[in-house]
Amino acid sequence: MVLSPLCFLPSGEATGFLPQPPPLGPRPGGGLSSDRPRLTITGTSSAAAADWIESQRPRVLDIPITVALRSLKTETGEEMRIRFLFVLSSILFLIAAGASAGPKEDVAAATMKWGETLGQDDPDKAVALYAPDAVFWGTLSPTVRTDRAALRDYFVTAFKVLPNLHVAFGEQFIRVYGTTAVNTGYYTFSYVKDGESKTLPARYSFTFVKDGEKWMIVDHHSSAMPPPPR
């Protein structure tokens, strides 16, 4: 995909094609024409355009641009126009990159979403990433969890036992088989206990199944990394 750069007009406007695949059709008189919509931004419409970009960005681009866009809506005059054009150019390139992302990138994003959610200390948000029939062997659990109530109970306990829990992913091995995908690798949990920072290296396997536009976890195995053999 090729993204047309923004062009600055004498009027102070910026104009450029939106990052969508160009449907080609015959042009009167010969040749091909692109039907891609064109976006024109002016200083007086920056807030509205910022709202539009926020609503149109692909879901795969789960990136923190909301704050930047929100700041644009509170500025006025030339400063707003210059800052907006800078942010807009960056966003358009990110959207173009995201539009070409494949299923492996989507699965990686779903895995990162799990990690981000784990750090929010909210059992319900964590459980929402699992399919209704998901099976989970937790790092701290001697029993397998096979229903929503048991799954939620695991996270409630984990957040109590491991305060301020976060996870950092190491190497990941993602394989995609149609609407099913497996991600195997290792991660390291970090938490604070009695005022002291601690870590817990572990290994994992996630199995995802695509449900509409979302990749849901249907199987998750996590176990503490064993010490190296002596």
Looking across the biggest beta sheet, what order are the strands in?
A: 6-10-9-8-7
Strand count, sense and barrel status of the largest sheet are: 5 strands, mixed
How many whole angstroms does the radius of gyration measure? 23 Å
One letter per element, helices H and strands E, the order comes to EEEEEHHHHHEHEEEE
Strand residue percentage: 25-35%
Outline the low-pLDDT stretches: 1-46, 56-75
Second CATH tier, the architecture of the largest domain: Roll
Number of domains: 2
Distance between the termini: 52 Å
CATH C-level category of the largest domain: Alpha Beta
What is the overall pLDDT average? 74
Could you give the count of β-strands?
Answer: 10
